[in-house]
Amino acid sequence: MTQTPDRRTFAIISHPDAGKTTLTEKLLLFGGAIHLAGEVKARGQARRARSDWMKIEQQRGISVTSSVMTFERDGITFNLLDTPGHEDFSEDTYRTLTAVDSAVMVIDVAKGIESQTRKLFEVCRLRSVPIITFVNKCDREGREVFETLDEIADLLALDVTPMTWPVGMGGQFEGIYDLRTNKLLLPEGPSREFQGKVVQTSGLDDPQLDAIISPENLAKLREDAELALAGYAEFDGEAYRNGDLTPVFFGSALKEFGVDALIGALAEHAPPPHALPAEPEPVEPTRNEVTGFVFKVQANMDPNHRDRIAFMRLCSGTFKRGMKLTPTGHGKPIAIHSPIMFFAQQRELADEAFPGDIIGIPNHGTLRVGDTLSEKADVRFTGLPNFAPEILRRVALKDPTKTKQLRKALDDMAEEGVTQVFYPEIGSNWIIGVVGQLQLDVLLSRLEAEYKVAAALEPAPFDTARWISGDAAALKNFTEINRGAMAKDRDGNPVFLAKSAWEVGYVAERYPDVKFAATRER
Ligand code: G4P
């Protein structure tokens, strides 16, 4: 059994504009990983310049790529996996969530739980990923604190525990009170712009508070806090780690309020790497052999090279540079000579990685999303989903001599998880499926820029797809009768293409022996 160093591997889930980028910058700043706030964006821009297809994200002003950021504090290494916030890229985001042990949910104090936050939350719930809530932008006018807390509790069916409480909001914002430690966080400096000062009080009755906070805000704080302490569940670390309770922190990422408390909470309560679902049995992080799985593949980061980076989450063992790992089920052992490690500031550790860490493995297309890598090739991690596409399009090739290139391109992108591809049993019109519109633009632009294939996307006679399974006789019978709607995915799995969600229901009722799945685990 290996002793593993302390890790917190987490992601931030939020709706666009809630403040994820700002919070990320401040977490890195407070964690000492970078010395200038703003560097995250700057680095993002440099990365964007790298590849042609990324022009789309420039045009749309959104971030399509995700990456890994690492910071360290008090002996704990925090791995923050960036998830693209735009809803069109949710599939990629969902997969990233399979590689974390916990999540921070950022919500805008004025807007509450928004659609994208909710979707991402549901994915976390599927996997019982514990969530810490950060209510952002308290320096602006927002909703009543109780309203926010009750909305989280009602919409997400979670117990909530307020850990901190804003003292006033918007123009009246005076700071944040920590209900557990009785510390008051105050702005400091002539402009009173940023959190700078911490006053330890003996509790809400402490007379010090009268000298610091305006009478109106103080009266309200005392009243609200009393009600809150009586009305909401007490913090229970186990309930949080089971995904049943979310501790709620208030703050302002922009003004740096509450960021420190958030890191503290991650350190104190968020789970370190634990056993992950796998066959034949779950893999404990203390297992000696190195195991991990690929949750993301990014291809052609440099348009001049057909290189890919497979992002692997390490699940057990101590990874060392040069080590040989075997992808379960296919391929020979791969010697990983030049892994990309993400903790640049810790040079002495750069040759080793531990459970919870992410390693980037350069390869030429051998590694795919969902692959398990291990020393003995005797395990397979389960639960990395493929989602039923919500938009299907027929790919029409402008130059018929490029069929081979098109197939390669579609296979490559399916492999990366950018789009899905379906090869119908009848006819030669390949169909691609995506979860969001933006993926279509990415596909066309990459076909042209990277594969020199000019193609157009036409409406497909289908609206959605389901992976089918069942015993051989039932499948054969179903396939024969519905041949015109049958296709194979990139891995050769049978897929039923349906004209509508209604048709899926109808067909499922008529063929009770066949299972129709909207997600496919790899
Ligand atoms: P996102 O990644 O979740 O999409 O959000 P991002 O951090 O980019 O923040 C969205 C906007 O909200 C930005 O303003 C940002 O400055 C602002 N913001 C983030 N946190 C806070 C906060 O705690 N308080 C206040 N008042 N504003 C906050 P922007 O004007 O759209 O962009 P920028 O030009 O400032 O970058």
Automatic annotation (TrEMBL):
<feature type="domain" description="Tr-type G">
    <location>
        <begin position="5"/>
        <end position="274"/>
    </location>
</feature>
<dbReference type="GO" id="GO:0005525">
    <property type="term" value="F:GTP binding"/>
</dbReference>
<dbReference type="InterPro" id="IPR027417">
    <property type="entry name" value="P-loop_NTPase"/>
</dbReference>
<dbReference type="Pfam" id="PF00009">
    <property type="entry name" value="GTP_EFTU"/>
</dbReference>
<dbReference type="Pfam" id="PF16658">
    <property type="entry name" value="RF3_C"/>
</dbReference>
<feature type="binding site">
    <location>
        <begin position="136"/>
        <end position="139"/>
    </location>
    <ligand>
        <name>GTP</name>
    </ligand>
</feature>
<dbReference type="InterPro" id="IPR053905">
    <property type="entry name" value="EF-G-like_DII"/>
</dbReference>
<dbReference type="InterPro" id="IPR032090">
    <property type="entry name" value="RF3_C"/>
</dbReference>
<comment type="similarity">
    <text>Belongs to the TRAFAC class translation factor GTPase superfamily. Classic translation factor GTPase family. PrfC subfamily.</text>
</comment>
<feature type="binding site">
    <location>
        <begin position="82"/>
        <end position="86"/>
    </location>
    <ligand>
        <name>GTP</name>
    </ligand>
</feature>
<keyword id="KW-0963">Cytoplasm</keyword>
<dbReference type="InterPro" id="IPR041732">
    <property type="entry name" value="RF3_GTP-bd"/>
</dbReference>
<dbReference type="GO" id="GO:0016150">
    <property type="term" value="F:translation release factor activity, codon nonspecific"/>
</dbReference>
<dbReference type="GO" id="GO:0016149">
    <property type="term" value="F:translation release factor activity, codon specific"/>
</dbReference>
<keyword id="KW-0547">Nucleotide-binding</keyword>
<dbReference type="Pfam" id="PF22042">
    <property type="entry name" value="EF-G_D2"/>
</dbReference>
<dbReference type="GO" id="GO:0006449">
    <property type="term" value="P:regulation of translational termination"/>
</dbReference>
<dbReference type="GO" id="GO:0005829">
    <property type="term" value="C:cytosol"/>
</dbReference>
<protein>
    <recommendedName>
        <fullName>Peptide chain release factor 3</fullName>
    </recommendedName>
</protein>
<dbReference type="GO" id="GO:0097216">
    <property type="term" value="F:guanosine tetraphosphate binding"/>
</dbReference>
<comment type="function">
    <text>Increases the formation of ribosomal termination complexes and stimulates activities of RF-1 and RF-2. It binds guanine nucleotides and has strong preference for UGA stop codons. It may interact directly with the ribosome. The stimulation of RF-1 and RF-2 is significantly reduced by GTP and GDP, but not by GMP.</text>
</comment>
<dbReference type="InterPro" id="IPR031157">
    <property type="entry name" value="G_TR_CS"/>
</dbReference>
<dbReference type="InterPro" id="IPR004548">
    <property type="entry name" value="PrfC"/>
</dbReference>
<dbReference type="InterPro" id="IPR005225">
    <property type="entry name" value="Small_GTP-bd"/>
</dbReference>
<keyword id="KW-0648">Protein biosynthesis</keyword>
<keyword id="KW-0342">GTP-binding</keyword>
<dbReference type="InterPro" id="IPR000795">
    <property type="entry name" value="T_Tr_GTP-bd_dom"/>
</dbReference>
<feature type="binding site">
    <location>
        <begin position="14"/>
        <end position="21"/>
    </location>
    <ligand>
        <name>GTP</name>
    </ligand>
</feature>
<dbReference type="GO" id="GO:0003924">
    <property type="term" value="F:GTPase activity"/>
</dbReference>
<dbReference type="InterPro" id="IPR009000">
    <property type="entry name" value="Transl_B-barrel_sf"/>
</dbReference>
<dbReference type="InterPro" id="IPR035647">
    <property type="entry name" value="EFG_III/V"/>
</dbReference>
<dbReference type="InterPro" id="IPR038467">
    <property type="entry name" value="RF3_dom_3_sf"/>
</dbReference>
